[in-house]
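Give me the fold.
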Amino acid sequence: MRSSAQPQNGGENYPIHHPNFHSTVSLRKLRRFNYLILLFRIAAFSSSLASLVFMLSSSRSSIPSSPRWYRFDAFRLVVGANAIVAIYSLFEMVASVWEISRGATLFSEVLQVWFDFGHDQVFAYLLLSADSAGTALARVLKGMDTCTEWSAFCIETDIAISLGFVGFLFLGFSSVLSGFRVACFVIKGSRFHL
């Protein structure tokens, strides 16, 4: 009986290629890429949550005639969009930590890359449209007597809308990175670019 170490049929021994093998340099690049995505997700979560808190706290006056965010449709949209983005970003932070710690995605790879990219796009545009509507309403309120009488309300809603735009930027950066993952998956069959 021949041992498996000897060439068979007069052939040569060829090294076995492992398709999932990555060098330590490649693994460090992947880890940095995953940490960068996690950083953008944390920033999107933080700014959306801060925007939500500022908008909710803008109507803390005890005077019944004072303006309240829930009396304006655009401000209700800002609150809803920031709440949705904060929850989504929290889920994606958990998924990123899972991927960094376990080396595998939460869902199957094909589902995960398309889920991330699609939801990043949808929620980024949701946040952009909500904050644009809030900006338009804030400009209208500044033209009226509302902001002269209730300047604290207007300042807090302006801060909330600005933080929402910051959340949009970070979600947009996350979308670019998840789009890069989709492109790598389509070209190479894996979310890894190496």
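The chain has a mean pLDDT of 86.
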